[in-house]
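Whiteboard transcription, Tuesday session. T.W. wrote the structure tokens on the left side:
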């Protein structure tokens, strides 16, 4: 399996970090009384929103990883989960979003889905 490039930072910025655990249950409202809740699946997709501060060279590396290695984000890759430290299989939900930090660095926002 393809892995996150070693020339890119392995730890994202704490700022803007968000994680959404997979939703595996379904809730059904009843006519009276409390709603019923049951597990719908054991395999579901979670999501991560992470940001990195990258140099111009590192942005080129990320672009090549996304566009070429992962076929425009369609491929999955192994990634070290920032909170748990475990290796997880991820895919890009959308293309990387860049914002200038200063003349030499860019802040990149990534939305990733964690595959079961």
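and on the right, the sequence the group agreed on:
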């Amino acid at each position: 399996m393809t892995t996150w490039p070693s020339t890119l930072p392995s730890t994202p910025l704490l700022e803007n970090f968000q994680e959404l655990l997979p939703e595996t249950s379904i809730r059904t409202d009843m006519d009276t009384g409390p709603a019923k809740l049951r597990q719908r699946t054991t395999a579901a997709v979670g999501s991560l929103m992470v940001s990195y501060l990258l140099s111009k060279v590192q942005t080129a590396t990320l672009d090549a990883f996304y566009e070429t290695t992962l076929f425009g984000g369609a491929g999955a890759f192994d990634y070290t989960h920032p909170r748990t430290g475990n290796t997880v299989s991820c895919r890009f939900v959308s293309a990387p979003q860049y914002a200038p930090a200063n003349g030499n660095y860019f802040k990149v926002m990534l939305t990733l889905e964690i595959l079961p």
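Someone added at the bottom: The chain has one domain: 18-28+43-114.
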